[in-house]
Design goal:
By secondary structure, this protein is mostly helical. The chain has one domain (about 1-90). It contains three helices and two strands. Strands 1-2 form a two-stranded antiparallel ribbon. Helix 2 (about 30-55) runs antiparallel to helix 3. The radius of gyration is 18 Å and the shape is elongated.
């Protein structure tokens, strides 16, 4: 919706090199591809969580269930680090957790 309302270009051009840019390094601008990539990453994280909740309990073999759980947790952690790292790079804020 942001891309439609603001009429942002899908890919930007770096002024120094002339190369296409998908992620803009400032927090005051954004290109369309950046929103799609970040949105898809959040959806992928949600799908991993859904597989963890709904797919894993249906497995009958405990060893296969354990391997699948560890794989899902590793992929989820890597995706979380990438999303929060991109967020910190773009906005300058680190995620804070209150437990």
């Amino acid at each position: 919706m942001f891309n439609i309302i603001r009429q942002t270009p899908f890919v930007g051009i770096d002024r120094r090199t002339g190369q296409p840019v998908v992620f803009v390094g400032s927090n005051s601008s954004q290109v369309g591809a950046e929103g799609f990539i970040m949105g898809s990453s959040v959806v992928a994280f949600g799908m991993l969580l859904a597989h963890f909740i709904y797919l894993v309990p249906t497995m009958s073999d405990p060893a296969q269930r354990r391997k699948t759980c560890y794989g899902i947790m590793a992929m989820g952690w890597a995706l979380f680090l990438w999303i929060s790292g991109t967020h910190a790079w773009k906005l300058g804020f680190r995620p804070s957790f209150y437990f």
